[in-house]
Amino acid sequence: MSTTAPPSGPVAALNAAAAAFIARYNDSKARLPGDTHARAEAAALLAEHGLPGPREEAWRYTSLRPFAETPFAPSVPAEPPASLLARIPAIEGTRLVFVDGRFHSELSGVPRGIRVTTGEPALGRIARPATEKLVALNTMLAEDGAAIHVPAGIDGGTIILVSIATGHSIGFHPRHAVVLAAGAKLTVLDLALGDGEYLHNPVISFEIAEGATASHLRIQDEGEGAFHLSTAYAEVAADATYDSFALTLGARLARMEVHARLAGERAAAHLNAAQLLGNTRSGDGQHADFTTVVAHDAPNTASRQTVKNVLTGRSRGVFQGKIEVARIAQKTDGYQMNQALLLSAEAEMNSKPQLEIYADDVKCSHGATVGALDGDQLFYLRSRGVPEAEARAILVRAFLSEALDPIGHDQARGAMEAAIAGWWDRHTI
Amino acid sequence: MLEIKGLAAVIDNKTILNGIDLVVPTGEIHAIMGPNGSGKSTLAYVLAGREGYEVTAGSATYDGHDLLGIEPEERAALGLFLAFQYPVELPGVNNANFLRTALNAQRRARGEAELNAVQFLKLARAQAKALSMPDDMLKRNVNVGFSGGEKKRNEVLQMAVLRPKLAILDETDSGLDIDALKIVADGVNALRGPDFSAVVITHYQRLLDHIVPDRVHILSNGRIVKSGGPELAHALEAGGYAAIVPEGASEAA
Amino acid sequence: MPVVAETLDAVQAATESGYKWGFSTDIEMEMAPKGLNTDIIRLISARKNEPEWLLEWRLKAYAVWLKMEEPDWAMVNHPPIDYQDLHYYAAPKKKPGPRSLDEVDPELLRTYEKLGIPLRERAILAGVEGAEDERPQVAMDAVFDSVSVATTFKATLAKSGVIFCPISEAVQEHPELVRKYLGSVVPVGDNYFAALNSAVFTDGSFVYIPKGVRCPMELSTYFRINARNTGQFERTLIIAEEASHVSYLEGCTAPQRDENQLHAAVVELVAFDDAVIKYSTVQNWYPGDAEGKGGVYNFVTKRGACRGARSKISWTQVETGSAITWKYPSCILQGDDSVGEFYSVAVTTNHQQADTGTKMIHIGKRTTSTIVSKGISAGKSNNTYRGLVRIAPRADGARNFTQCDSLLIGDQCGAHTVPYIESRNPTARLEHEATTSKIDDDQLFYCRQRGLNQEDAVGMIVNGFCKDVLKELPMEFAVEAQKLLAVSLEGSVG
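Above: the input entities. Below: the structure tokens describing the complete assembly.
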């Protein structure tokens, strides 16, 4: 990407952006660490297929055009400002801090009982650059990441995985891989903070072996000029659980994609999320997209999703959720609920919950609601003397609680609440 | 006459019935009592032909017909009726339509003339009235939105319309108040006669005050461990199962 | 005049007019050469003696179609269609059919019997030669009834000012109405199949209900005997003026064979202030054999515009036929307080594929829509609900309720639900619920304990599952549709 005027039309803009990324890869490939073969393959994929475009069904509601047309400032190494560091919640666990996509050892700790390596991208086994174009982009340009391995039967405690964007980098593509051996446990608090305009395109994968439990708690609180485009993968073996909650507050344009595959019997996935969106200080509406694909590939597997959207200003929320049930996955139990509160005249919600089912003995359902706050409830509170603004806040918090309540980690839950309080200070509902 | 000999059945590799011997002569009403998990409902289901049970030994015949070798609807056509402990809901299926379809299917199987809608409604309304049930029960969807008591009364109404020769009542009294209990008892007593027999499965002696059984059997661990007259139910009520069930019989089979 | 003689006249009139509508008997060429080009379109237009504007309209549609690509987003698979390998114009010649019912496929006859279709009608449906003009022997003959009824009704309709005729006739008799409304709801370039239809449509129905008129009958019985031979590119246009009311039913529960594999119909409905249009469909085109060979590809565009305040358009469909169904009857709710409804049952068995649903576009204030979809998949079929609910920024107080339920029978089929929910107004309220399950073993056992055999039990449970949709059908068809569901699913269970 250059500072010259971008070409017109969404497809032309995306092609130009893809070409700029490939040029950057060609310039820097000699010094990029890790698997050069995987990079070259990803570059070939990107050259052939480009970036996700408006004609793709999976990108129906989210256009990358604003991102493709943004002239980013060139990259300058910088230290994170104290204001951002102060926003890292003080909770028990080991910090792994990445600044503009590179591991920062002074800000990070050394975990005990689990193995962590950094210094090159952790590609993992389950990410799919051939299917997800942004993952190809990540694979091509990733410079660093954490490879986390929890041995069998070990409770690895909590990892606080922090990404800080100083706003001095045009874009970074961290690549993390978490592997839990049989019966292991780990909580990852996955935090994204930043200032300025930048692209953050992380990919993280969780391989969860028999009987293991991974808890992936995410707070996306990027700077309001940021583009956050993340992809998470989970492959869940028999009797194992991937338990995730994603809170979206920041970024100008955000998309979180989660691909969970329930590969063994009695595997379970919980993909809960909340998106709180509004206008940026410059008056633009935020756009955030939470997209999930849960593949039930074994019998007796279960998935649960509760996704809440609170939309103010000119913001646009998107939810796409797909439950796929393979022929073999009898006795699947899949449930998905997506709800949106539109709190302003110009907010917009697009929702596409989807079931694709090839097994007959299943119980799958989804529900979606979109609307304003309940007038009767509001009146009830006000008739008891609660001022309107407070009444609205009470009802919005109650609305969110259904998605937040399953978070079993008290400190992480506290961090979520604090981040939501921060959003609350910046927006009127 | 219902004749059960050495009947054993397993579900999910677990033995539930462990050699049942029971004869219910035509015209008699027998009660089966027993603690939770003794196999009472399993016996009812196996006789009616529910899937999921594997009969590993023994036989069950009704008037000489081998019950175990035929389909559930064929057993129904022979005159076997099961009043379910948990009646099933059929959304969108009208109660009267359901009952007429069932009655005519049975009549057809027996070579009897089918009833047209008018004849059927006359019969069904008369039966509902005889059992002091509101007509609108016939108009509603089968068991959908019915209270627990209404569901049980609906089973009795179906029984009254279908006029079975052998009725098996699986804890039809559970969850009923005294008025509903009387309705259930009236339904059974109305059918009582030389051609009708019934197996009444219950936890409590209470129902047996209203449907007086000819014989009472105690089921424990998949076997009938004691049989007697109506007085056995009273003894059970007074002393509990521990007093009746012999030592050793309560151990896991 | 004695009743029998009157009937004979009626039968004859109906038969003759059947040819008059849309096809001339004196053309020498029975079939235009294969392929689609402007010459063929000119030929179609000329044979139908169409005005210049309609030819231009067709040519414009063709030009648009040439630039379009066949859509590939639906969950259906089929070998590529060679659009140059089809005949786009054919005079309806009498094909040698079976000479009596004895020569008809016994499987087909068995199905008719199960549906309770009267004997005479069975012969006609099976295409037995001479069945239509044979002297009615039986007083209670179904065709006798429907033809005479239709004739009587036609007079009644004329009296109330209702226009109901083939669209080719309407082009001649009421060109101003056709010109005003044709393509006003489904523009020529709306989608690939609508563009194709606009270029080459052969015939279909035209209905005009004047202001304040309540159509004195269901437009169904009449249609039932005329539905055959309407060809593969059917075009229907229904206009309901202010405060008028019409109920229209197309299709037939009896299975219909058709040599044309590709069907691409377009239906346009226009409702003005306080008008109500109820459009019911029973679709049972040939679905192909048990191995999935043959069968109709049914790519239909159906759309209604609620242009007036408080207008209402209600679609009800029972889809059991066709190898492929691609169909989304939609409502554009422009008028304030207008109402859109979509009630659908789609059954797929063997290798059938159905991708069907609706679009509800809320533009006016306080517009409401209701969607109830029941999908039943059996065999190796795939059944997809695809629906869009869109609330425009000005649609204050709009409401939508959607319920999509899928039932799976057997473990080789697929059931899919793809809703799109888009809201841009905070005062709108949308609710969507979807479930997928199989036929409950306990329900089956309960029915069988009461004496129903497996198939009847399945039929009863499935009909219960579809009750909310079936009750929207006109009474006579609701009964047939119930039987149709049971017959369609025969052999799928156990």
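Note for the figure: The interface with chain B takes residues 440-443, 445-454, 456-457, 460-461, 463-468 of chain C (CB under 8 Å).
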